[in-house]
User: Fold this.
Amino acid sequence: MRVLGIETTCDETAASIVERLPDGRGRILSNVVLSQTKKHSAFGGVVPEIASRAHVDALDTIIAQAFKNANMTIGHIDGVAAAAGPGLIGGVIVGLTQAKAVAFAANKPFIAVNHLEAHALTARLTDGVDFPYLLLLVSGGHTQLLAVEGVGRYVRLGTTIDDAVGEAFDKIAKLLGLGYPGGPAVERVAKNGNPRRFEFPRPMLGRPEPNFSLAGLKTAVRIEAEKIAPVTERDVADLCASFQAAVVDTVLDRSRIGLQIFQQKYGRPSAFVVAGGVAANMAMRDGLQKLADQAGLSLVAPPLELCGDNGAMIAWAGAERLSLGMKDHLGFAPRARWPLDEAAALPGARA
Ligand code: KG4
Ligand code: ZN
Assistant:
């Protein structure tokens, strides 16, 4: 089964063709990602209107390239999937509408994919991980610990009560003048810094529910930066390294609690999986690897090119759904908010 996947929920225009073999293994036949970073960098963050227009400009070409790289035409595929949310609504509409049009014109099934589900299922594409598994989802908009019971079956164990981890990295980068996107910049600068120079708070440490809070940590970095202003290059490196160390400690502590709760309910997870843009952070990966080793679990982290947003994860989630007979109506509406665990979504809480 081959599926075309389209991703346009944020600042990457992406399309991919992925194959799902009868034994459940996956193969990426093409994966084309066009980053809009340059278009947004002058503004210090993603500008939704610019993003949607850039998706409109690029998407046709990106899809054509995905077919070309896979050496295929529309006749070779069995379904068309698009991220139908959550994300910036203008971009979501662009990708979703395009996918519906392609599916309709080619008379192929259409699958509306939850962008978070696509991050969540990537570990099955890359490593064939079995259900149930513990998932740490860390991206620009989301920070959650989830029990992944099956396709479409997610139980949220914990979430952030304020900023997402990637968002915190982005805000620290902006504060210290490192530009956008912030995560990779902070990590790069932190490599030359002293992680012990500043004793930043480790929010929520030891709390029994595996929730996250990062706003206080962000404020602590700002106050420290103001105190020592004007900051030198060394100061910035030390601030970044100390911030990153605090984030990693917090995430490890929260993940440890999440794992305990998972084990009480499901027994041993088949793996500890990390997904989302922040999964590209090496300090985070090293810490999570140690935690997994201590727990006797294998850590499954996507290869770097599948940590950030991409079409392969959408195509794969589409293929997983299609193989279970799940397809969607062409009237499926785009969703700016779309929590993976609808039952756990509290008003005002992050999806
Ligand atoms: O999953 P993603 O590409 O988009 C969302 O769905 O949000 O994640 C993007 C986020 C951004 O906040 C970015 O700064 C962060 O992931 N990120 C990183 C790194 N690479 C990307 N954060 C820390 N270290 C990195 N190396
Ligand atoms: Zn994402």
Remarks:
- The domain at 130-304 is CATH 3.30.420.40 (Nucleotidyltransferase; domain 5).
- Residues 10, 139-141, 166-167, 169-170, 181-184, 187, 276-278, 280-281, 308-309 surround KG4 (ligand 1) (CB under 6 Å).
